[in-house]
Amino acid sequence: xxMMEEKVVKVHLKVNxxxxxxxxxxxxxxxxxxxxxxxxxSVKEGCGRGECGTCIVLVNGMPRHSxxxxxxxxxxxxxxTLEGLAPEGKIHAIQLAFLETKGVQCGFCTPGxxxxxxALLDKNPDPNMEEVKEWLSSTLCRxxxxxxxxxxxxxxxxxxxxxxxxxxxxxxxxxxxxxxxxR
Amino acid sequence: xxxxxxxxxxxxxxxxxxxxxxxxFKYIGKSIIKWDAIDKITGKAWFTADLKKLFQNAVxxxxxxxxxxxxxxxxxxxxxxxxxxxxxxxxxxxxxPGINDVGYVIPDQPLLAYKKVxxxxxxxxxxxxxxxxxxxxxxxxxxxxxxxxxxxxxxxKIVEWGGLREKEHTLIHEERGSDVVSRYKIRxxxxxxxxxxxxxxxxxxxxxPMQEHAYLEPEAALAIPxxxxxxxxxxxxxxxxxxxxxxxxxxxxxxxxxxVIVPPLGGGFGGAEDVGxxxxxxxxxxxxxxxxxxxxxxxxxxxxxxxxxxxxxxxxYKHAATRDGRLLAxxxxxxxxxxxxxxLGPFVGWRAxxxxxxxxxxxxxxxxxxxxxxxxxxxxxxxxxxxPQVTFAVERQMDLLAEELGxxxxxxxxxxxxxxxDRTVHGQLLDHGVGLEEALLKAVEAINWYERRKLYSQQKxxxxxxxxxxxxxxxxxxxxxxxxxxxxxxxxxRDGSIVFRTGLTDMGQGAIQGLVNIIAETLGVxxxxxxVEWPDTASTPDAxxxxxxxxxxxxxxxxxxxxxxxxxxxxxLAAELLGCDPDNIVINAPDVYCKNDPRLxxxxxxxVEQSFxxxxxLQEFGYFRAPPAEWDEETGQGAPYMxxxxxxxxxxxxxxxxxxxxxxxxxVTAYDIGRVINRVGAEHHAVGGYIxxxxxxxxxxxxxxxxxxxxxxxxxxxxxxxxxxxxxxxxSIWVEAGFRRxxxxxxxxxxPSIVAIAPSIANAVAHxxxxxxxxxxxxxxxxxxxxxxxxxxxxGLLKK
Lengths: 183, 800
Known about the structure:
Chain A has six helices and eight strands. Chain A is of the alpha+beta class.
């Protein structure tokens, strides 16, 4: 057991559009920085090994397992978590699509799925079903909502194509909170 | 004896609405956006571990686990660990103020091991430190002297076939004097004679794996010491009141000084029962001993080695039938491996024996079941609770029998299934609400069973399709396991909004939404008026445990009773105010009016306000208790559950003869759930249960080293289905045969949704292989590629 000296690394991060000057130990995971320093608890820890995808965040637009990423290596990077997917008071088309397709069960995997979908649609605005499945296959859902999530990504692609990207959160709540949406 | 009022209310509502089609309801059976869905898609929902951010001065709790799966503890020395930087306290068994036990059904499981360790997840000490790193590093300095004992992983070292007698072996629970936790039996008819007279007999041995829940949220607890010496704990647990009892016992505190609050659960599936008690007790101990908020969160590895699993089963089954396919008798010996501690094993064993002959008329039966200890991770509750294991065996047996008789598997089942008016193997009369035949026929039709079955039987080539069916029934709620009640509170606020409180938890599948739908329908208010409170032992009523597919039925009945009583009062007041008959009041909030003259109206808010001034209380507590179950220990006769959910599953698979890889291409599930209450939730169960059952059938098992360590302790090696493994289509069909003592006729679906998946897939695999010899070898799950390939190779199926 070697006692590590309290070394810290200075990191400049832009998280959800906000600038942060952080001093973190070199071995601090991005997951812990986001959850415990910045309070961004949409980022979940499911396995700590990059297997389950619940900790996915976007680093410079690309999905990264925040449990396998050291914060100290990200100086100058831009990080997006689910909290920052849409401006304050808005929700993103992908989130709305996940709501409307009714796939959310326990919701622990949902942030990771939504961010994976975001990265996919940024790269490929009109993915076919096979591409959606392939892309989302690295994210696990134990409740078994995969079919719903695939449909959500297709629906989100449609919204985005139609130029509908952000929706007012209050209005969405009014329209959908425990509302009857089908027979 | 007169019927309790709550039973009368439930029956009255059923009788009044039984002719109504589900489409005709306003909220019952509708697709409704779940109460917590918006919080979850925005990432705002708080799970237990997320609350840590609200308590910046929390200390971290880490469990020091044993290095041996079976050993005497000679000495525990924590001196060095206690001196490690950042360490506030090292807790061992000696520090426990109350009783050092968290056994669920029997007191066989110390929270902190002190004399003996029995599996690789046993905790010997807790480190409480300023940071998780400090705690983990200090854990390495706890020095324990062990005297290792023989590690027993094979339940056949505990008992033997031919009566399941206990063998000579190193005792795991020497304090109990036996490693058989419990035994059950069914004795009915004359089995010996039936086998002598039978035209056909099939027999085989079956094995099912130790399935891991693998909910994506690892266990977490946060305990906050209270000024009065009590403690408030936020914890991932399915059963807050059971958790409170366990924690109070460990801490030696009265129940009212221990408060358990349950934030949303990131999945439970039965796994968040025992371990919820354990983590809550550990965090609470640390909080009280350090007088600081204490936070405990498991890594995936700790979760996998440290919480209960699905009981592995080994069983020998023998079925007898007449030449025309009537079941004459079933004889079986079943061994359930409960690992190191009983947990819910005794109840799992009981549920297994109740369901051990499947949803069929069986005139003669002799079944013996033993639940035994080994040094594996302990097994407890998991969606299905003993039924998936026996149903796998029974439904494979039915297919072997069909082959032996030269009958179509559907035809054989149709000859033997339970229908209205039949008696179960326990002698229980099913006088209504048996929708099994309808489910079976609808599933068969939806997937074109006969055509596909014929078509697939003539295949050549190395990729073979197969189609298989399995049926199930599943007793709802806890039956003879214990006091079976539930309760709920509805409080209409002065502005007309509504607070709903129940001690039942929503594990994510939407059980609570079903209750909301019942309130909305009964009161006549939109569900969006209702706010669901987190389960909290200090404010929500004890609703019994959230287990056994009981939320919709038992919680639903309690909720219905409360809503019904409120509705009666509101009707009466509205009638007085509007001048019409109470039965004539229509509430369609915000409108309230007289049916025969809609001009006589008042708004919901006004009605609520008037209630306030006129002294009509707008809070109501609803309670429901199931009729006591009957069970004769010697014969297995009685009425074990008040009713059953029925189902028929058909799976269409593809088997690659060159690799042994099985893929499910398509599936259909048809369940009789009495009445669809919560359509979204019902579909989530049908589809999600299928996928979890498919994992059980094809890929999931816990693998052990001979010394009792688990090989696959993370999701990289414990594989669950991904989005690429699932069938293209899973069709859900609902049969609504009704049940007089369910809310609006509803029955449960939580557990039934996994029960018959694995056998339907295994039966399809056997069909795809198309070999009578190989058929008998599809007798274990998971059907991993290596196993399936070994069967293909053994029977030379590739050359054909």
